[in-house]
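Lab notebook: predicted structure, single chain.

Context: the supervisor wants predicted structures on file for every construct in the current expression panel, including those that have not yet been purified. This is the next one on the list. No modifications to the sequence; it matches the entry in the shared construct table.
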Amino acid sequence: MDGPESTWFVKPLHERPDFRLIAAFLWGDGHHTDSDGDSDNPASRSWTWLYLRSRERAGERVDLDLEEGTEACMRIRSEEPWLAAAVACFLAMEAKAQVRRGDDTEWADAPSRVDAVGAFDFQAAMERARVSVWRESTLEDPYPNLRR
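Prediction complete. Output recorded below exactly as produced.
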Protein backbone atom coordinates (compact mmCIF):
# COMPACT_ATOMS: atom_id res chain seq x y z
CA MET A 1 0.00 0.00 0.00
CA ASP A 2 1.34 3.40 -0.93
CA GLY A 3 -0.85 5.99 0.81
CA PRO A 4 -2.08 6.39 4.37
CA GLU A 5 -4.11 3.43 5.43
CA SER A 6 -7.11 2.95 7.62
CA THR A 7 -6.85 0.10 10.12
CA TRP A 8 -9.59 -1.76 11.93
CA PHE A 9 -9.50 -4.79 14.24
CA VAL A 10 -11.98 -7.62 14.83
CA LYS A 11 -11.95 -10.00 17.80
CA PRO A 12 -12.43 -12.75 18.57
CA LEU A 13 -12.22 -14.18 15.08
CA HIS A 14 -11.46 -17.86 15.59
CA GLU A 15 -13.07 -19.04 12.36
CA ARG A 16 -13.25 -16.92 9.24
CA PRO A 17 -15.71 -17.18 6.34
CA ASP A 18 -14.65 -18.59 2.98
CA PHE A 19 -12.46 -15.72 1.73
CA ARG A 20 -14.53 -15.52 -1.45
CA LEU A 21 -17.50 -14.46 0.68
CA ILE A 22 -15.66 -11.24 1.55
CA ALA A 23 -15.28 -10.47 -2.16
CA ALA A 24 -18.96 -11.30 -2.71
CA PHE A 25 -19.89 -8.97 0.15
CA LEU A 26 -17.85 -6.11 -1.31
CA TRP A 27 -18.45 -6.51 -5.02
CA GLY A 28 -20.68 -9.52 -5.79
CA ASP A 29 -19.99 -13.12 -6.84
CA GLY A 30 -19.13 -12.31 -10.46
CA HIS A 31 -16.74 -9.42 -9.77
CA HIS A 32 -13.19 -9.79 -11.09
CA THR A 33 -10.75 -9.79 -8.17
CA ASP A 34 -7.12 -10.49 -7.47
CA SER A 35 -6.45 -12.38 -4.25
CA ASP A 36 -3.72 -14.07 -2.28
CA GLY A 37 -3.59 -15.67 1.13
CA ASP A 38 -2.65 -18.74 3.12
CA SER A 39 -5.79 -20.78 2.54
CA ASP A 40 -4.70 -24.29 1.52
CA ASN A 41 -8.24 -25.02 0.32
CA PRO A 42 -10.30 -22.14 -1.12
CA ALA A 43 -13.16 -23.02 1.24
CA SER A 44 -10.94 -23.00 4.34
CA ARG A 45 -12.19 -21.10 7.37
CA SER A 46 -8.78 -21.07 9.07
CA TRP A 47 -6.79 -18.68 6.86
CA THR A 48 -4.66 -16.13 8.74
CA TRP A 49 -3.90 -13.56 6.04
CA LEU A 50 -5.65 -12.37 2.91
CA TYR A 51 -5.14 -9.79 0.18
CA LEU A 52 -8.14 -8.80 -1.99
CA ARG A 53 -8.19 -6.25 -4.80
CA SER A 54 -10.88 -5.32 -7.28
CA ARG A 55 -9.71 -5.60 -10.88
CA GLU A 56 -12.66 -3.43 -11.94
CA ARG A 57 -12.41 -0.52 -9.48
CA ALA A 58 -9.09 1.26 -9.08
CA GLY A 59 -7.82 1.62 -5.53
CA GLU A 60 -10.17 -0.90 -3.93
CA ARG A 61 -7.78 -3.16 -2.04
CA VAL A 62 -7.91 -4.63 1.44
CA ASP A 63 -5.34 -6.60 3.43
CA LEU A 64 -6.22 -8.78 6.40
CA ASP A 65 -3.93 -10.56 8.84
CA LEU A 66 -3.96 -11.82 12.39
CA GLU A 67 -2.46 -9.21 14.68
CA GLU A 68 1.00 -10.29 15.78
CA GLY A 69 1.03 -11.88 19.20
CA THR A 70 -2.68 -12.71 19.20
CA GLU A 71 -4.61 -15.82 18.32
CA ALA A 72 -7.92 -14.35 17.28
CA CYS A 73 -7.58 -10.62 16.54
CA MET A 74 -7.77 -9.82 12.83
CA ARG A 75 -6.28 -6.58 11.48
CA ILE A 76 -7.97 -5.09 8.39
CA ARG A 77 -6.13 -2.39 6.40
CA SER A 78 -7.02 -0.36 3.32
CA GLU A 79 -6.17 3.00 1.80
CA GLU A 80 -9.96 3.42 1.46
CA PRO A 81 -11.32 4.00 4.99
CA TRP A 82 -14.84 2.83 4.04
CA LEU A 83 -13.41 -0.44 2.68
CA ALA A 84 -11.54 -1.33 5.87
CA ALA A 85 -14.59 -0.40 7.96
CA ALA A 86 -16.97 -2.42 5.78
CA VAL A 87 -14.84 -5.57 5.89
CA ALA A 88 -14.32 -5.25 9.65
CA CYS A 89 -18.04 -4.81 10.31
CA PHE A 90 -18.91 -7.70 7.99
CA LEU A 91 -16.44 -10.07 9.66
CA ALA A 92 -17.59 -9.02 13.12
CA MET A 93 -21.23 -9.62 12.22
CA GLU A 94 -20.41 -13.00 10.70
CA ALA A 95 -18.49 -14.08 13.81
CA LYS A 96 -20.57 -12.26 16.44
CA ALA A 97 -17.36 -10.46 17.36
CA GLN A 98 -16.43 -6.87 18.17
CA VAL A 99 -14.60 -4.17 16.20
CA ARG A 100 -12.41 -1.19 16.90
CA ARG A 101 -10.94 1.44 14.62
CA GLY A 102 -7.16 1.92 14.56
CA ASP A 103 -5.83 3.17 17.87
CA ASP A 104 -9.22 3.45 19.57
CA THR A 105 -9.20 1.71 22.91
CA GLU A 106 -12.91 0.86 22.98
CA TRP A 107 -14.27 -2.28 21.35
CA ALA A 108 -17.85 -2.10 20.07
CA ASP A 109 -20.48 -4.23 18.39
CA ALA A 110 -20.31 -3.93 14.60
CA PRO A 111 -23.80 -2.43 14.08
CA SER A 112 -22.76 0.61 16.12
CA ARG A 113 -19.84 1.22 13.74
CA VAL A 114 -21.53 0.70 10.36
CA ASP A 115 -21.75 4.47 9.88
CA ALA A 116 -17.99 4.41 9.19
CA VAL A 117 -18.62 2.80 5.78
CA GLY A 118 -19.90 6.11 4.42
CA ALA A 119 -21.84 5.90 1.15
CA PHE A 120 -21.14 2.15 0.74
CA ASP A 121 -24.50 0.34 0.77
CA PHE A 122 -23.84 -1.99 3.68
CA GLN A 123 -27.31 -3.58 3.65
CA ALA A 124 -27.06 -4.42 -0.07
CA ALA A 125 -23.61 -5.89 0.58
CA MET A 126 -24.96 -8.04 3.42
CA GLU A 127 -27.65 -9.31 1.05
CA ARG A 128 -25.01 -10.14 -1.60
CA ALA A 129 -23.14 -12.15 1.01
CA ARG A 130 -26.32 -13.82 2.28
CA VAL A 131 -27.20 -15.22 -1.16
CA SER A 132 -23.63 -15.86 -2.33
CA VAL A 133 -22.80 -19.28 -3.71
CA TRP A 134 -19.74 -19.30 -1.43
CA ARG A 135 -22.03 -19.77 1.58
CA GLU A 136 -22.41 -23.35 0.35
CA SER A 137 -18.68 -24.14 0.12
CA THR A 138 -17.11 -26.81 2.29
CA LEU A 139 -13.65 -28.35 2.43
CA GLU A 140 -15.10 -31.39 0.65
CA ASP A 141 -16.94 -29.26 -1.94
CA PRO A 142 -14.96 -26.01 -2.40
CA TYR A 143 -16.59 -25.13 -5.74
CA PRO A 144 -20.39 -25.15 -5.26
CA ASN A 145 -20.61 -22.69 -8.15
CA LEU A 146 -19.96 -25.59 -10.53
CA ARG A 147 -23.31 -27.13 -9.53
CA ARG A 148 -25.34 -24.03 -10.43
